Amino acid sequence: MTLSAFDRLAQVRRHAALGQLVLGAPMPVALAGVVWRFASPAVAVSVALAGIAVLAALAWRRTRAFDTAWLVRQLDARRKDLDDSSDLLLAPPASLTPLQQLQQARVRERLRSQPAPDLRTSWPWPRIVAMWLVAGVVIAVAAWWPARAPMASTLAPADEETPAIPGVPRLVGQRLHVAPPSYTGQPARDETTLDAKAPVGSRLAWTLRFEPQPTRADLVFHDGQRIALQRDGDTWRATHTLAKSTLYRVVAAGTEAQPPSKLRRLDAIPDRAPQVKVLAPDRGLSLVAVGQTRWALAFEARDDYGVAATATLKLTLAQGSGENIAFKEQAMTLHGTGPATSRRFTASLDLAAFGMAVGDDLIAQLTVRDTRAPTSQTARSPGLILRWPSDLGQESTGLEGLVKKVMPAYFRSQRQIIIDAEALQKQKRSLAADTFVTRSDAIGVDQRILRLRYGQFLGEEAEGEPQPPPTSDADDDHADDDGHDHAEAPTAVQDDHDHATSATGASFGREADVLEAYGHTHDHAEAATLLDPETRATLKKALDQMWQSELHLRQGQPDRALPFAYKALEYIKQVQQATRIYLARVGPELPPIDETRRMGGDRKGIASRALGPLTPMPDDVDAAPARAWRALANDRAPADGADLDALHTWLRTNEARVPDALDLFAAIDEVRGDPACAPCRARLRALLWSASPQPPAQVQRRAAPDDAGRRYLDALQQEPAR
Questions:
Q1: How is 70-96 classified by DSSP, letter by letter?
Q2: Rounded mean pLDDT of 558-577?
């Protein structure tokens, strides 16, 4: 029985909500009808839906008053036999005392024998009927209300002076009404001229007046389209939706023998697509920092009329490596802030929620829409990548202890070895003997590695150990007295020996480059001729001095090693200044010649080299502008109608190639209407010059030299005296 009570409460609520909707619906319906008549159907539907949504919210709020307490009060008031115990019907039996359980059973039995009365409230029918009658009257008045149109007496005078000829209609009043699309947010306006600039999709309405009245009037466009004007009393009206820029003129019946009226121009302003700018992060590829748990993104979207309030953020998680890469895509809806023309979209992504781990990539891209109707334009931001690099820390090995998998600091240059040895010698008194020897031995190790690196050019062995990685010395980037450390540059820089860089500049970690860099290059015939004999001898002297320097450094005697280090640096500088270097010859690898086919006349497998028939070159498609340009050169000669017709036809098929095709159309029309107009011909000729294809660039002939130039050239040709 408790369930029956709740069912009745639900019926009461539904009945009350429906009554509120029926009572309030006439207001949004009447408002939508007025908007439909004087604005646009799309706006009217939006107004109606918004009004109904507000009414539904109010009705739902009104039904909150019908709760269980209201139900108990109604049952107790209408059924005296329930002994004011209706609240026991809503309580579970386990929470009641034995006496209350007995009373609950008695109340249920009485409700079973005699059902509860109908608790639904009646609808206010008089108010409902009155509201719908008022709404009907408002809609009828709006439907029969005449459309807003300017009276003939309020029309602007025609801006084209036309002589009054008896019996010939002429334009005396004009007005152009421009109604941009509603999504642009621009208000409608009236133009006093027949030229206008408006967004694409604008609705244009002409109101014209002629004296005397013609039997027919049209709007004739330059592409051949015609729109008939409809007579409305003393005025003529026409409407048109602006889809692209165009030219037109007003033509009235009876004016065929008169000079044509001037062309009017309608410029259609296209709706540009929105533009998305990334504000954060400041780079396309970001690496996960230590302890980072979130990724902050910020975008800015701009549009000429407005950006939609929501945008879609597409997220792609790439997991795995090699061929076992899996992708997971997810889309999020972001709500923008700021004005409609410049909205800002932000997001803070939880990396753990996306399941991002070491070695994964998270790609984010925002898609925004503008408010263009009926179809919106979209734009996408550049893709942003958040990369969680693999662990490149230390790995434990059983034999060599800790091995660090990072690129080591580049080995010292000869100049740096000298600087370190001098600095160590100055600190000899302040250092312990063991520390001094250890640091000197470390510098000696650097000297040895540098000696081995230069020794590769002479074909020396690596002394049983792997070759050091390719490095550089950066001697030219430092002064002789600089003392800073070079360990900050792990990548290759300029070397003490310029040619050594090219020989050892292999990419670190690549298998092919490692074999090429650390293999025995002296086993190849071409490697032995890399340097000329004099340069090889100088480099051999430098290696000998390095060996002596290393010997004393390893023994803890930097003072004795410095003279040899200085001499080695001197020889290295001489090698840098070598004027000749021999490089390996690299020729084309041609297939071997089949000697058995020589002089046999067998042409099997050889393509025919006979030239096909020559096709004649097509006529110049741009001949019409050139002919018209030459014909307009003489102002005294009348314009050839055939040239103008050919030019008009050429322009119709090549509008995209001309910077301003409408301006050129108007200039052609002016010359055709008044062939003797010299300014019109000059303007058309100037436009043709800018529209003509530019000739290909050619080499300019050098001007003839003067006397001083000839003497200079003669002196250059004379052989120097021996």
A1: HHHHHHHHH-GGGTT-GGGGGS-GGGS
A2: 87
